[in-house]
Structures are given as structure tokens and as C-alpha cells.
């Protein structure tokens, strides 16, 4: 049984008071999160990594919100750096860079690899990945694959990587039983269960359209545009393989 | 053997010259494709369908480009219509509305169902769907599921469905052998093979990183950000299950 409390990364008060240690990875070059939310996540994280073009995105965010001298620098800049502007690298000249040109892995995977020793050092329990679904289908799929690979690597030690956009939060649920404690912002919002990568038998409680040992697969049942039932505080899911879950965090 | 020629869809000249029979569908995402290409695709299609909020997107596109009275109205508006503005419905007076309320399927899936009787009637070769790969993850995934569901239909009514965005074209390759012609302007761009439904054994030719009887799967090899070998005009793919192909396309029309 694994329990998820997304309020620890979605709610500003909860982020500040939570004892859960996490790392932040900035993947994309346009940060659309609410500025105070982004600022709070950054300040309270144990490790902050900006990835390639995400570093430009971070610098733009700082400038746009007058935060240049107010927030700590990233701990690391990673990626192949082919999208990172010279101006950005100059600004963050004191930040450690781990450049990797390996074409066998995407930038997201490389950043998780760079984060690995720091997870141990700082006892991190989760990773928050600031991202966006912006245009390239293969990059979206590549990031989903990274979630699966990361999950397989960690095996029994569940350390979720939460993909956070301005409107939704997505992550891979492990096989077996999961409980998702629904924060206020997500109640009555849409949600989805997506068996990306293989057919999966799933049961749920707490959704508008629940599943009962239903086989989910592409070409058949993929539960998109589902909703969290208005009475629900905790969504329960049981699946025979890891499955991708997504939930709205504010009105579209 | 299935052969695909994306240039027949993304190049204005070829669309006009070849005069193929196709359907055009507009889904509910911002329309970011070059105006000239969209106009050409719209004018030359045998049936134009706007789906729910896609109808609003289409009306906005017309207004932003001063085309309100210049292009024919959609043939059909479909969907559960919970996102379609009253103003859009009012504007398209010549358009038949088929409201599909079933909540077990997405508007896009239902639209392809509505299209079925037209496939033989109009002798349609393929369908082009205008949709950016942005926004809600579950909508992006749902559209892919629609492609898989469409793939399962009988040979009589199953036709290729091409998802067209401003930067890419994506479609499902059926089980077996396929050849994809690489348009000249796309040769330096990216491509991808994604085994969304399950582990798939794949062989390829013509890619920078080819596969030989390799099992592709999530948690393992998913071929994204691939490229072309620089000498081939065609990519050849053989797979034992349908697999999703996506490729970058260029701006020139």
C-alpha cells in the first residue's frame, strides 16, 4: 500500500510545514506555474536542478518576478546544454554543471541520474518536475518512459517523480494498492488513469466512473476525462502493473 | 505493405495537384498551423468536421484571418457540445449538427464513428486531424487511444488517420510492414516510434538509430528524438503490433 499526499507539493502552507524532503527539476523553458507556488517549491526544496533550456526558463522566471537576488541558485545545471543560452550560463556561473551528450537518454533521465547521489545524501522522498505538455509528442512520451524507467530502477523504494504543470499533476502509481489523498484544489477535478506501455487490470474507488478489475489498454479502455467524485477524500487504486495517473489541480 | 507520403498532406502544392479524397477534422486545441496550409486543406477536403470546442477554435481562426465569409462552413459539427459556444453554433448556419452525448467515448472517437458511413460513400483515402500536442495530458493520450481504436476497425472502414500539428505529423503504423516517405524539408528533423499499447518487436531501415528485431517497450526502449540516416528517401518499419510514429515537419508549405 502506498499513500500519496499531493497537498505537500500543491498547497503553499503544506509545502512550508511539511517534513517531506524533495528535489525540484525544471524541465521546460516556459514556467507557467503560479509564481508564489513556484517560489515556495524552490525555497523549500533540498536540491534544485535546472535542465538545459529549463535553465533559461528559470532565469526568465526570476527576472519576470523580480526574484533575481532573492532565491538561491540551482544546485545543478544538467543536460546536453544545446538549448542553454550563453547569457544564462554566465548568470549562473557559480553553479555546478553536469553536461552529458549521451544520446541514449533524454535530459530528464540524465537529471534524475545526477540527482541520485543527492537523493541519498539529503534523504529525498520525492521529486517535483516542473514541466509542460508543449508540442512535441515524442518528448512527452519520452518523459513518461523516464517515469517508468526510474520506477523500475528504484524497485521497492518508491520515490515518486511528480510531473507538475500549471493545470495538472501526473505521476506513476506503483503496482499494487495506492491511496491518493485528494487536496482541496483537486476535489471534483478531472483525473485519468492511463495504461501507457501495457494492458493493466485496475480497480478503483472514489472516482466518478470506477473500475472493477477492468482491463485497461490502448484500443480499449483508457480512463481519460474521469472525475474525482465530489464525496471523495481518498482515491483508491489497485493495479497489476505501474500505471500513469493524472489529476487536475485547478480549472482549465 | 503500407506506404505513407506525408508530403501529400503537408505540402500545399501536392494537396492541390493530387486531389485526394480526404476528411478534415478540427479538434479543440489552438490552431497554430500556417494559415495557407489550413485553408488549402479545408478547401480541398470532401468533408470538414469541427468537434465540440474545435468549432470555437475554427471560428476564431476565421475571424483572426478575415476569412469569415470566404471559406465554406463545416459539413458537420459533432461532439457532446459541452464546450461549443452558442455563438459558434449560431454562426455556422449551413452546418449539420450531430450531437454525440455518450460519455463512454471521447468526442474524437465518436467523430470517427460518425465519419464511417462517409468513407465508402465519398471513397475517402484518409483523414487529417488538426490538433496541437499541448494541453491536458489525458486528452493527448485519449487521442492516441482513438487512433488505436480506429485501427481495430474492419478493412472496409479503416483508413489512415493523420494527426497534424504545427510541428509534426503522427499516425499509427499497422502491424506488418510500412514505408514512410520522408519529405525533403523534413530530412534534417526528428522522428519517433512509440510502443504505447504494449511491448512491440520492431525492425527499421532509414533511421539514424535503426532497430533489428528489437523489443520496444515503456520502461525500456522507446525511440524518441531519432533522426534519419541522411541517404534514404523512405523509412521502413516492420512491427508485430501497431505502433505510433511521429515526425517533425517544416514550416514551408
Automatic annotation (TrEMBL), chain A:
GO biological process, one term: thiamine metabolic process
Domain Thiamin pyrophosphokinase thiamin-binding, chain residue ranges per copy: 176-243
Residue runs in coiled coils: none
NCBIfam families in alphabetical order: thi_PPkinase (TIGR01378)
InterPro entries from the UniProt entry: Thi_PPkinase (IPR006282), Thiamin_PyroPKinase_B1-bd (IPR007373), TPK_B1-bd_sf (IPR036371), TPK_catalytic (IPR007371), TPK_catalytic_sf (IPR036759)
Keywords, sorted A to Z: ATP-binding, Kinase, Nucleotide-binding, Transferase
GO molecular function, one term: ATP binding
Protein name, as recorded: Thiamin pyrophosphokinase thiamin-binding domain-containing protein
Pfam family, one: TPK_B1_binding
From TrEMBL, chain B:
GO terms (BP aspect): thiamine diphosphate biosynthetic process; thiamine metabolic process
Stated name of the protein: Thiamin pyrophosphokinase thiamin-binding domain-containing protein
Keyword tRNA processing: no
Name of a matching Pfam family: TPK_catalytic
Domain Thiamin pyrophosphokinase thiamin-binding residues, every copy: 176-243
Alphabetical list of InterPro entries matching this protein: Thi_PPkinase, Thiamin_PyroPKinase_B1-bd, TPK_B1-bd_sf, TPK_catalytic, TPK_catalytic_sf
Organism: Polypedilum vanderplanki
Gene3D superfamilies: Thiamin pyrophosphokinase, catalytic domain, Thiamin pyrophosphokinase, thiamin-binding domain
GO terms for MF: ATP binding; kinase activity; thiamine binding; thiamine diphosphokinase activity
Record key words, sorted: ATP-binding, Kinase, Nucleotide-binding, Transferase
Amino acid at each position: 500500500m502506498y499513500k500519496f499526499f499531493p497537498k505537500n507539493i500543491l498547497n503553499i502552507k503544506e509545502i512550508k510545514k511539511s517534513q517531506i524532503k524533495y528535489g525540484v527539476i525544471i524541465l521546460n523553458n516556459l514556467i507557467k506555474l503560479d509564481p508564489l507556488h513556484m517560489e515556495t517549491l524552490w525555497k523549500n526544496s533540498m536540491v534544485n536542478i535546472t535542465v538545459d533550456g529549463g535553465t533559461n526558463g528559470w532565469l526568465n522566471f526570476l527576472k519576470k518576478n523580480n526574484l533575481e537576488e532573492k532565491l538561491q541558485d540551482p544546485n545543478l545545471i544538467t543536460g546536453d546544454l544545446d538549448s542553454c543560452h550563453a547569457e544564462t550560463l554566465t548568470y549562473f556561473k557559480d553553479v555546478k554543471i553536469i553536461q552529458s551528450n549521451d544520446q541514449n537518454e533524454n535530459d530528464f533521465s540524465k537529471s534524475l541520474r545526477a540527482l541520485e547521489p543527492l537523493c541519498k545524501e539529503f534523504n529525498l522522498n520525492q521529486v517535483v518536475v516542473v514541466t509542460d505538455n508543449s508540442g512535441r509528442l515524442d518528448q512527452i512520451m519520452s518523459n513518461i518512459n523516464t517515469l517508468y524507467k526510474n520506477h523500475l530502477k528504484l524497485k521497492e523504494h518508491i520515490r515518486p517523480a511528480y510531473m507538475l504543470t500549471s493545470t495538472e499533476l501526473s505521476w506513476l502509481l506503483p503496482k499494487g494498492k495506492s491511496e491518493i489523498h485528494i487536496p482541496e484544489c483537486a476535489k471534483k477535478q478531472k483525473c485519468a488513469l492511463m495504461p501507457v506501455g501495457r494492458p493493466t487490470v485496475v480497480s478503483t474507488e472514489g472516482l466518478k466512473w470506477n473500475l472493477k478489475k477492468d482491463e485497461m489498454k490502448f484500443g480499449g479502455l483508457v480512463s481519460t476525462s474521469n472525475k474525482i467524485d465530489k464525496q471523495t477524500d481518498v482515491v483508491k487504486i489497485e493495479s497489476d502493473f505501474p500505471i500513469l495517473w493524472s489529476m487536475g489541480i485547478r480549472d482549465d | 505493405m503500407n506506404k505513407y507520403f506525408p508530403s501529400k498532406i503537408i505540402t500545399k502544392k501536392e494537396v492541390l495537384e493530387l486531389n485526394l479524397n480526404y476528411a478534415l477534422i478540427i479538434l479543440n486545441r489552438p490552431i497554430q498551423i500556417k494559415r495557407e496550409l489550413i485553408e488549402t486543406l479545408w478547401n480541398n477536403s470532401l468533408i470538414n468536421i469541427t468537434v465540440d470546442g474545435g468549432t470555437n477554435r475554427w471560428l476564431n481562426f476565421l475571424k483572426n484571418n478575415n476569412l469569415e465569409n470566404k471559406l465554406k462552413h463545416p459539413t458537420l459539427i459533432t461532439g457532446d457540445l459541452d464546450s461549443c459556444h452558442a455563438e459558434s453554433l449560431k454562426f455556422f448556419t449551413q452546418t449539420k449538427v450531430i450531437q454525440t452525448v455518450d460519455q463512454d467515448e471521447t468526442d474524437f472517437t465518436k467523430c470517427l464513428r460518425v465519419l464511417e458511413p462517409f468513407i465508402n460513400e465519398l471513397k475517402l483515402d484518409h483523414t487529417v486531424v488538426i490538433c496541437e500536442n499541448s494541453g491536458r495530458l489525458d486528452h493527448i493520450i485519449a487521442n492516441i487511444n482513438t487512433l488505436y481504436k480506429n485501427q481495430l476497425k474492419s478493412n472496409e472502414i479503416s483508413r489512415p488517420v493523420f494527426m497534424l500539428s504545427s510541428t509534426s505529423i503522427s499516425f499509427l503504423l499497422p502491424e506488418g510492414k510500412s514505408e514512410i516517405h520522408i519529405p525533403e524539408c523534413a530530412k534534417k528533423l526528428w522522428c519517433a516510434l512509440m510502443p504505447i499499447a504494449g511491448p512491440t518487436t520492431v525492425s527499421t531501415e532509414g533511421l539514424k538509430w535503426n532497430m533489428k528485431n528489437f523489443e520496444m517497450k515503456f520502461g525500456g526502449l522507446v525511440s524518441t528524438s531519432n533522426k534519419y540516416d541522411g541517404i534514404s528517401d523512405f523509412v521502413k518499419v516492420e512491427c508485430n503490433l501497431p505502433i505510433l510514429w511521429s515526425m517533425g515537419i517544416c514550416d514551408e508549405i
